[in-house]
Amino acid sequence: MIAIKSAFKTKAKTAAKTAAAPRLTSISRFNIAAISAGLAFLYLPIAILVLYSFNGSRSVAVWGGWSLRWYRELLHDSAMIEAAWTSLGLALFSASAATILGTLAALALTRIGRFRGRLPFSAMIYAPLVLPEVIIGLALLLLFVAVDFDRGFWATALAHTTLTLCFVAAIVQARLVDFDRSLEEAAMDLGCSPLRTFLTVTLPLIVPAIAAGWMLAFTLSLDDFVIASFTTGPGATTLPIRIYSQVRLGVKPETNAICTLMIAVVALIVVTASLLSKRYAMSGERAAALGAPM
Amino acid sequence: MAEQTIVSSGKPLVRFESVSKRFGTHVAVENFTLDIRRNEFFALLGPSGCGKTTLLRLLAGFETPDEGRILLDGEDIGALPPYLRPVNMMFQSYALFPHLSVAGNVAFGLKQEALPREERKQRVAEMLAMMRMDEFADRKPHQLSGGQRQRVALARALVKRPKVFLLDEPLAALDKKLRTQTQLELRELQKKLGVTFVIVTHDQEEAMTMADRIAVMNGGRLAQVAAPREIYEHPKSRWVAEFVGDVNLIEGVVSAVDAQETVVETAAAGQMRVPQGNAAHRGDRVLVAIRPEKVAIAREGASAHGGNSVSGILRDIEYFGGSSVYKVKLDGPGSMRISSVNVSRKGETVASKGERVTLSWSADAAAVLAQ
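^ Those are the sequences you sent over. The predicted structure of the assembly is below.
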């Protein structure tokens, strides 16, 4: 241990002597190794799952050549397809509801100045971000039982709205915080009522953030297992629950196929969302650089 | 200020009547009364935090007065929201809509009016041509230079044909050369359109070069309102004299007053004769204000001209190219700054550091201010 340390020290010293600063930013062997290790840690399990979804063999552990067999079989699994439609419907509904509520909350938090209770409110809206899902799920279950609300599709839709609303609020609020208020004043000065100002100026400018929020909410709802397991009932089995119950009876290659499809959908949405917000951040920066008075 | 005089010829276009505005405990504008005339280029001048921007926002409708009335063409607009006022504003940041093209920005205000499509198009095209922005009509704001963006902001507000056009620090975002050019352009534009311009600025030179009249503000109150020359040559208070331009202030006591002159006994410069201006009475402690360029400097012994003179030692010379500023320690208490144009290209100066000099000025060069 000591030997390694001292060896490292001398190496570091010589490195520092020769070219310390550029060395840290260049594509060194160390950096490549670090990135490879990190990516492998994150994506190796997923890669194996994806790979085995194309496995021709019936056994999960033995490679039997490339095949789309399990995807074809998936088409005939009506229970799985039904679960997929349920999950899709849930995600569409809860993402849309959460986007409307979350955007309104973000507007209120950034716009209505310092109203009484603003600080607790803004802290409270982020609570579901950090609360364990088990607790949210249990709390919702108790609520639904208390008000005698049937567990099933609508209960889960409301639960997912609760979960994803705060994510939308956080994303939209970040956009609104660096929104130039004089743009809205300019619109009013030019003859727009507050509502028209919102529709013609504010909304077009924050719509990328809203879209990104919607997509994140959509994927969160699609992925959720824990909360749905508390709130769903017979006839409203979501895809993650269906997969889990199937896996308990033994991993079938078909499961790999449905999981691969889910990964593809989520990855597509996440990439789109991040591209949207990145493009927006860039144009915002450019505008700020040009617009800043000296 | 008890003696806020309302100078008006005919009916004023804008009238602030005892307007007060507070933000929490901070008083932004206090008991403010002011008239702005039709077709006038009017400047609100003052240091930051003096309430000039609040006044502009009160006029635009972004703030409502706590007390008093704001009249536009004799009509109380104090409670009217911004979108119902025939007033338009150019924002300091320009506030161009980033998601709209240049033409879209200029057309934005007209779209809120029920105008025929053809007329709207024509007015936008006319305005873009006037601002020399017609070839950039399809660009987005972030593709324009600072000067171009300012012209779009001007066009966007002026195409609405406002009764009053408000400009919040319009030149703050431009570099110095462009600023001087734009000052002239704004002035020409105002004369051409015949629209009343109200500009907010903290830069006294900007106000002087552009405005027909200037309201100098301090701490939410009106310090003086007058034409630029009047403000510079006949400041009503010490604060105005010091804020607008450079000034030498000499303390003294009034010893005699007649119809033409006030005689002030000063410790620094002996007896000084000042033309009658601001009212002063025998025995009052006053300040005599003299602008640095009104004083002539010469080596002691050279013939002095004018009615007043005083001697001292030249302490320092600041060279600015076109002119130099001489700092002179007076024989009495205090010192004076004298500004002199460098007429000759040769290196000779009026006097060298440490030499004795005589300062002289004509009787009408100075003004008496209350202390």
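Residues 1-9 of chain B have pLDDT under 50 and may be disordered. Chain B has two domains: 14-241, 246-370.

Shout if you want it in another format.
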